[in-house]
Amino acid sequence: MTNQKHHFDASPVLVEDVVPALRLSLRVKPAHRATLAQALGLDLPARVGARAVANGTEALCLGPDEWLLTAPEGTDLASPARAVYADAPHSLVDISDREVTLRLSGPAVLDLLAACCPRNVAAMPVGTAARTVFDSATVVLWRDGPADFRMDVWRSFAPHVRSLLAQVRQEIAAGL
């Protein structure tokens, strides 16, 4: 995925919009997880917060029977899932337009996130993700590196979250 710089990027935290991608909500009973995973060619991790990647497609376990799948636009995951539906009943819903993704990176990113997120983000291992809140907005926070995160936020909350990010970035920059 390539990124487009948002209009504010001159502080110890860079905030960028990530180009749109296919985003799917998957629900399947644990007994059928392996069958569906094989059809998709992608591991569906069983541990909440665990991620798996294969051929540009990423799966995040959000619950015992819930995953968030992301892939480049144009990827067809529905056809292989549909082909095994009789053996692995599931719900696969395209939620691509519901959310936007922001990339947050830089030496002060943990301070930025701590200002509005009650979760101990510093304790999140690299390569994991979690559903949490940022101020009053439900988000999915992906930790891609020690100082590199992605934040999925519902499109309707994006202006509020962007405003908070800009405010906190300014406060961090003023304190340095």
TrEMBL record:
Protein name: Sarcosine oxidase subunit gamma
Domain of life according to the entry: Bacteria
Protein species of origin: Paracoccus lichenicola
Lineage: Bacteria, Pseudomonadati, Pseudomonadota, Alphaproteobacteria, Rhodobacterales
Membrane-crossing segments per the record: none
